[in-house]
Design brief:
Helices cover 75% and strands 0% of the residues. It has helices at 2-13, 17-39, 42-58, 60-64, 70-89, 99-106, 118-123, 125-133, 137-147, 153-160, 164-184. Helix 1 (2-13) crosses helix 2 (17-39). The chain starts with a helix and ends with a helix.
Length: 187
């Protein structure tokens, strides 16, 4: 229940360690899987997961002000931290990792007030799998390069040896297809 997660986050902002433990127990398996899919290194994945929860502990007040959707915050926080780690390891980010950098680039600001949460997505897992399976293999691959590898459109084009306009079109068609399929399924 999303409201319960927000209550736990509020408790974490008051330095309630039990609340952090409950959030960890609920979200760590999902976040570990996401981070490991990006980093493909179990040791680094464990380090980044620990850092994500350290950020949550230290900056719960800031996170509380960024969104009412705790699930989206956690997913994006983990993704941003993992992609930043990957890009730093590959020499693509040279900017020092400061508190200001973390606040601007790692801690997400979610403007969506949707009620989509972990519980909802788990209950709709089968429907969502069917919707994603309707994308072509090429569309899924391009989205995967963007989301899990953190590549920009020009980097995807270079990796696939395709024009940037082709990559843009594949991404646009994939998102349009996803939007249409979600709409037809009642999401």
């Amino acid at each position: 229940m999303e409201n319960q997660d927000n209550k736990l986050l509020y408790a974490v902002s008051k330095k309630n360690a039990k609340a952090l433990e409950q959030i960890y127990d609920k979200y760590s398996p999902l976040l570990y899987t996401l981070i490991n899919r990006i980093l493909k290194d179990e040791r680094k994945t464990t380090e980044v997961l620990t850092e994500v929860f350290a950020i949550l502990w230290l900056k719960a007040d800031l996170i509380l002000n960024r969104s009412d959707n705790f699930y989206l915050i956690m997913i994006n926080l983990a993704k941003n931290k993992a992609l930043d780690t990957l890009r730093r390891n590959n020499g693509l980010v040279t900017e020092p990792y400061t508190d200001e950098y973390e606040n601007q680039f790692i801690i997400p600001e979610i403007f969506c007030k949707d009620e989509i949460g972990l519980d909802f997505l788990m209950s709709e897992q089968e429907s969502l799998s069917i919707i994603f399976s309707q994308l072509t293999e090429a569309q899924l691959y391009v989205l995967s390069l963007s989301y899990f590898k953190g590549l920009a459109v020009n980097e995807i084009a270079k990796e696939l040896n395709l024009p940037v306009t082709t990559i843009n079109e594949k991404i646009k068609v994939a998102f349009t297809g996803l939007k249409d399929n979600l709409s037809m399924a009642g999401f």
